[in-house]
Design brief:
Length: 408
Amino acid sequence: MAEILRPETAEQTADAVKWALAEETPVAVVGGDSKAALGRPSQAAHRLEIGGLSGIVMYEPEELVLTARAGTPLSEVEAAVAAEGQELAFEPPDFGPLLGGASGQQTIGGVLACNLAGPGRLKAGAARDHFLGVEAVSGRGEVFKSGGRVVKNVTGYDLCKLFAGSYGTLAVMTEVTVKVLPAPEKVRTILVYGLDDTAAAAVMSEAMQSPHEVSAAAHLPPSAAVRSSVSYVSGAGTAATALRVGGPEPSANHRCAALKEMFAGRGALEELHGENSALLWREVRDVAPLLPDGDSLLWRVSVPPMDGPRVVTELAGTGDVDAVYDWAGGLLWLAFSEDTGEASVAAVRAAIGPTGGHATLWRAPVSVRASVPVFQPQPEALAALSARVKESFDPKGILNPGRMYAGV
């Protein structure tokens, strides 16, 4: 019979892992369960749910640091920092609806374990860049700590960086410490209408290289733009390229004016303020509102920004493809019709091959996720290193086995 283990302390978590270790039986490590459909299907007999490890342990706004138990809902963390005029600058996305679930279910530990970041990654970095300290239980059943409350206190191996993006395959995080930053006073967005993908890539590149401190850049082709809840985007009847600036109001206004002057003549321009600007970037962050509903296969692809249009054009030859460009074109979200099936796997890998890109099958039926490489296949040497790291932390392979790669 499958067991559901619900520890409420680090010690109870260690006991649960020791039980699984003694039984040599795998456990699926679960936070809010919002990303159960991400990665390869679970191969674990039991569940280790860390939702009981919840609550903010320490928050010092003046020091820009927060510590919370790993099962703390992300919404609770974001509400606490927003009340102090601060934010998680890497803008963790909510992929619940994208993966067929509900919104607002993710935990701070889950966000860090998957190294998730939204449009702010361009300037602020990934989740791992804001991950300062961790308390965790290894697959050996050992409780350990790494890192500290400030970067300068991190000595030796910075295990936080290792766990970010490990999808719970190395250890069960019980407590995490993250860096927070002041939220911008005002956020403004410039829209450039009517650009094709290649022209949009050029505009985003120029904007990011300008002195105007653009904090995010995204491009919505017509099929994505029409799905936006922002009338200035969906009602335009064409593609929309978005450039975001933030800061004190006089500075934000000045930089918006400079960007308008810079791109005058490239296409019709519009400026978004307040809720319209915030809503657009939430849509870009979470992707789901901008892509087809239902059972389309979804890929998350990282490529050199100027190479994105070529990749999209090449893949359009395999069938209907809906695309959204984020990170100034360096991140592509590509939705294929369901009947594309496993054929999209070879097509995507081939399209990104010449530029050394990175592709993850983000949404697909269980049968497809079980039969193809979901994450980017690793070179032989890197795969061997990953296996040794996994063995060091989890020698019996009891934590989320096979979640990322078969047999690991």
